[in-house]
Every structure is written in structure tokens, then in C-alpha cells.
Amino acid sequence: MGLFSKIKNMFSKETEEKKEIEINQEEDTSMVEEKQEVKKKSAEEKSVKVYEKGLTKSRKGFVSNLISLTSRYSKITDAYFDELEEILIMADIGVNTIMKFMDRLRERVRKEKIEDPNLLKEIIVDELFIIYVDEEVLESKIHFNTTGPTILLLVGVNGVGKTTTIGKLAWQMKENGKKVLLVAGDTFRAGAVEQLKEWSEKIGVDFFGKEEGSDPASVVYDGIVKAKEENYDVVLIDTAGRLQNKVNLMKELEKINRVIASFIPEAPHETLLVIDATTGQNGISQAKSFQEITNITGIVLTKLDGTAKGGIVLAIKEEVNIPVKYIGLGEAKEDLQPFDIEAYIYGLFKDMM
Ligand SMILES: Nc1nc2c(ncn2[C@@H]2O[C@H](COP(=O)(O)OP(=O)(O)O)[C@@H](O)[C@H]2O)c(=O)[nH]1
Ligand SMILES: [Mg+2]
Questions:
Q1: Nearest ligand, measured from the Cα of 166
Q2: Over the stretch 132-174, which tens digit does the pLDDT of each residue have?
Q3: 347 lines ligand 1 (CB under 6 A)
């Protein structure tokens, strides 16, 4: 079964209701198991709902174009393919991905002798998924340190959502029982220290910072001393993102990394690059630049709720090949989701199914 039908079944209401009825008729032991299964499903469903809502703009732009394309053509022609390509380009999927995708699609149409554009909708979803997964397992989980504090460094240019993401991550981790410390390594931008402090108060986790203009590496140093002495599980470090001065930024990040490694050689355990999805291809070039200056282990794609260019997830995979670990779908503390390609594709294509 293709992904299209799989997720269609997985999340369709009918199946859920049918399941409920079946459970009511079941006997004791299997009933408990089934109930747990349903519980797990409802958590999945909740995350799917967040994706669905957060991707509304992308879906409206992208999928409604696809639907209209399908209704305008009764047969698959060259003109149809051209228009399809255009729609994908507008969704910011990335030129290389699109070329690969179009080749595969044309090949399937030829081989399977498909003439009806309606039949192609499913194949489009499946092929986009296949391209993303591409036989590789992109690890989307955070690597936690089991022998001491886990150090997470957040990098990215100004305004992409680093501080907000730290707040959201910290909240999630606190909810999961972790003792979390926020470290204000962005001492450059006016108000940045205060903004992080406000987040720490809002969600009820601890904060360490110094006054604006301090040396970020020294803030990180003292922050990690505190984290080790007071047994924190996770340290989230905010940084300044002055990409216009690449050499300085590189030096600053190198210095921060050296300080961190002097305490815990294998740390930072993750360096997460934050990208603003609304900036489209610009975000991709930021990723490439940051990749040159430091070792990025994952991407947080923010503001997906504010853009019709949800296809950027696929472009990131194709052009920088760093796993997207989280996506931001709003400004509140709950609006960060671990990246899940199936929920994402469902959120994007729901109206087509
Ligand atoms: N709609 C939306 N806004 C976001 C998201 N993430 C961050 N923001 C907003 O983007 C702006 C800049 O965020 P900030 O964390 O200060 O960025 P920083 O300069 O990288 O630290 C703030 O107004 C945030 O509320 C998101 O996922 N969705
Ligand atoms: Mg900030």
C-alpha cells in the first residue's frame, strides 16, 4: 500500500469509529490492548491536527492549485506536466527535487500507461514522500547525553525564531520531567537576554545570563559550570546570528564550541539551525552558509504556519541534507512539533485525499 492510502486510512474518521464499535464488542484482555492502541492513536491524531492546522496556508495555495489542475485536464499532456512543474516551483520545493520528481513521474505515467490526471494525485504524494525518504533514514530525534547534561546550541540569523524555539523546547522538555537551564548566549542583540529570561519565567525553567554586550563564550562557560554543579539535564544555549559578518560569527561559534567541549568533549550534543520557512530559498542559502561555518546536526523550521511554501521541507532535504528535527507552527509554547514526514505530508495533501 502506498503512503497516500496508508495515511488516508490511518487518520480517516470512519476507521476510528469502526474501531470503537469493534472494541465495544471485544472481550476483557484484548479490550485493554485495543484501548491502549486507541490512546496512542489519539496522541498521533492530535499531532496530526496541529500539522493540519499549521499547514493550512501551504495546503490552500499548493493543493488547491493541484486540484484545479486535475479538474482542468481530462488527459495527461505535456501542458499538464508543465503546469504541474510550475505549481511545485511556487511551493518552494526546490529545483533539483522537482526535476528528479518530474522525471520519476513521467516514467511512471509512461510505464503504467496512466492517462487520467485523477489517478496521478496519489502517485504525486507517494513520489514526493519517496524522494524525501530516499532510502536513507534521516534521524529526527534529539541525541540526549545519558551521563551528564545534554547541551543544545541554537544558531541562525536574527529573527528566525531561535529564542522562541528555545522557549518551546524548554517547555516540552520540562513537561517530560527534565531539569532545564536556558543560557543567554545572544548578548549582541538589544533585548535578547531579557527576552530569553521572560520565556524562562513564563514556562517555569531556570535561566542564566549576563548583561548585554558580555562575551558570549564567558556566559556559556559560567552557564555550564552552573549546569554541572546543579545537575541540570538539558542546557539550551541561545546565540546571536550575525551572518553578514561570517568570519566573526565563525570565530564566535568556534569559541563557544571550545568552551563547551572543555567540559564535555562530545558536546554540544546537537547544534540546531533555525530557519524561517517564510524566507523560502533564502533560508536554504542560510543553511548552506551555516553548514560551512559550524557542524549543524539538525534544522528547526519555524513559521510554517505563516507561509504557503510548505514545500521547503523537501528542498532542505535535497539541497542541504540535514534532518529537519522540529517544525514551528505558531508563536505559543505548544506550537513546536517533532518533525514527522507522514503527518507533514498528510497536513499538506489532506484536501486531495
Ligand atoms: N507564526 C510564527 N511565529 C514565530 C514562530 N517562531 C517564532 N516566531 C516569531 O518570530 C519572531 C522572532 O522570533 P525570535 O525567537 O525572537 O527570533 P530570534 O531572533 O532568532 O531569536 C517572534 O515574533 C516570534 O514570536 C513560528 O513557528 N510561527
Ligand atoms: Mg533571539
A1: 1
A2: 766 555 566 788 898 899 999 999 999 999 999 999 999 999 9
A3: no
Choose the residue to mutate in 153, 160, 163, 164 for probing ligand 1, maximizing ligand atoms within 8 Å of C-beta.
Answer: 164
What mean pLDDT is reported for the chain? Answer: 85
Listed range (52-66, 202-216, 250-264, 332-346) with the worst mean pLDDT = 52-66
Burial of residue 147 (CB within 10 Å: 0-12, 13-18, 19+) is exposed
Closest C-alpha to ligand 1, atom 7: 161
Q: Which ligand is nearest to the CA of 242?
A: 1
- Please report, as a single letter, which amino acid is at residue 28: D
Query: Listing from the earlier edge strand, what are the strands of the sheet with 324-328?
Result: 206-208, 180-185, 234-239, 150-155, 270-276, 298-302, 324-328, 336-338
Q: What is the pLDDT of residues 203-235, one digit of tens each?
A: 999 999 999 999 999 999 999 999 999 999 999
Question: Does the Cβ of 305 fall within 6 Å of ligand 1?
Answer: yes
pTM score, two decimals? 0.82
What is the percent of the chain with per-residue pLDDT over 90, rounded to a whole number? 51
Q: Other C-beta atoms within 10 Å of 53: how many? A: 13
CA of 96 to the centre of ligand 2 (A): 32
Q: What is the DSSP string of 44-107?
A: HHHHHHHHHHHTHHHIIIIIHHHHHHHHH-SS--HHHHHHHHHHHHHTT--HHHHHHHHHHHHH
